[in-house]
Amino acid sequence: MAEHEVNRAVQAAPASVPTPEAWTKTELARHPQRPYPMDFIEALFTDFSEIHGDRAFGDDAAMTCGMAFFHGEPVMVIGNLKGRTLKERVARKFGSPDPEGYRKALRAMQIAEKFGRPVFTFLDLAGANPGIGAEERGQGEAIARNLLEMSRLRVPTIATITGEGGSGGALALAVADRVLMLENAIYSVISPEGCASIMWKDASKKQQAAAALKYTAIDVKRLGCVDEILPEPEGGTQNDPAAAMAMVDEKLSYHLTTLRTLPIEDLLEQRYLKFRNIAQFYTTA
After folding, report:
1. pLDDT band at 8, cuts 50/70/90?
2. pTM value?
């Protein structure tokens, strides 16, 4: 869909009606051939030098961080890793980071702040790892710490949701000055299967849950949860990765240039106000 068509769809969608193609978008966001965050990192950045470990417990295979160059400018890049083969997926917990992954990401962000480098994050995860070990090592605290520290980083930050953006696990990488979202991505507090299991005690009602959650790009843009929807090639990014990468590259360049013009105090104030005002609603008697 072309950019002007995406914008028209956002404006035309009634605020009270769930987007009908929510489950179709979900299947596209989860398409096995859809480019993952590391695919975007490799295509858009050069000289990527990975940072390992959280300096507390270990190195999470589901999270990658590193310094790189974006059009000749030094930056910090962060993204979760999912893996293509079954062996890789198991090793990376299907892209769901442990607390040490979030702590590694925070460590990388603080390094970027120290050296004045913009931070780019790429998200495609259903949520943080909910395993017992992760909870024992402070999963909730690690996510909460990232939310706090990202909100006050003194460098420009841009987050891009490329596939699924699930719950606090995604938000821990997305408290950014600009949050971009691919047209067929989804951004939600919970998966449709999880929602259906809670609301109706029946995971098979996932399509009904998908429509009710309002997590498609058009829905969350209307709620103010993302700043811009990035159009995809017809049928999804997996059908023409090069075209999709070119679009993302153009938008990242534009937003970074815009953010660079703002004094740091103005940048922090705008970031604060943006997240304070997300999804506000009012009722009348």
Report:
1. low
2. 0.88
